[in-house]
Amino acid sequence: MISISGVVITKNAEDIIADCLDSLSFCDEIIIVDNKSEDRTKEIAEKMGAKVFEYSSEDFSDLRNYGLKKANGEWVLYVDADERVTNELTKAIRHLITDDGRVEKLNGYFLKRKNFYFGNHEWPYVERLERLFKKDNLEGWHGKLHESPKVKGKIGDLDGYLFHYTHRDLTSMVNKTIEWSKIEAELRYRAGHPQMRWWRFPRVMLTAFSDSYIRQGGWKVGTVGLIESIYQSFSIFVTYARLWEMQQKKK
């Protein structure tokens, strides 16, 4: 019997996938949904015993739902390629799936995620994400980019952390912005976003900077916090500049 399946969506992750899979070694099976990788991601994952399925989509919910269909476990844990399951979280998950009384009460769990920028610079703000589910109670994921799950029943919290090694360097940051900003802009365009005026740009950029630097506490981590917060402002600018461009072409 397969108790838990780990599901990972990948795309050109040859430099980071091995560490991710190592952190999922406690799972009974690991499902890789590979979104057109052009490097050695699939080869590395297969050598480490993961089940690799090639599936192409720009819709992140579609990718996660595909992984759900391929998973055979009673429980499904979603982890991104740049995330790591800590030992404390591993123990909490193991305890959960062997505690019959607790399993019957809750059908999904929030995990706490710590972000690390530019290597091992820990971000002050801790996220809370729904990532662990009883498979039969996960109805599916919704949302093309900022996806969210629909779960039947109660959802709780687990101890331990996911470590998220995002924005490792400026090159990967810019590449991600170029890719994601197009999707973000298209979603806003299709939703009928109001016409972009000059004053909207400083407003959204200042909001993004303030959220990162002040609300999330970026100011606490010195230069890294300032760079990351300015970058968030730049990233949202690119998204809305793309939106402006789309609106102009329609005229």
Features:
Spore Coat Polysaccharide Biosynthesis Protein SpsA, Chain A, 2 domains, eight-stranded mixed β-sheet, globular
Structure description:
The mean pLDDT is 94. The protein has helices at 17-23, 41-47, 60-70, 87-98, 100-105, 170-190, 200-215, 222-250, and strands at residues 4-10, 29-34, 51-54, 75-78, 83-85, 108-117, 121-134, 138-142, 148-151, 155-165. The radius of gyration is 19 Å and the shape is globular. Helix 6 (170-190) packs parallel to helix 8 (222-250) and helix 7 (200-215) runs antiparallel to helix 8 (222-250). The protein has an 8-stranded mixed beta sheet with strand order 3-2-1-4-7-6-10-5, with helices on both faces. A two-stranded antiparallel sheet has the order 8-9. The protein has 251 residues and is an alpha/beta fold. It has 8 helices and 10 strands. The chain has 2 domains: 4-165, Spore Coat Polysaccharide Biosynthesis Protein SpsA, Chain A, CATH 3.90.550.10; 170-250, no CATH class.
Report on the biggest sheet: 8 strands, mixed
Shape: globular
CATH topology of the largest domain: Spore Coat Polysaccharide Biosynthesis Protein SpsA, Chain A
Radius of gyration: 19 Å
Structural class: alpha/beta
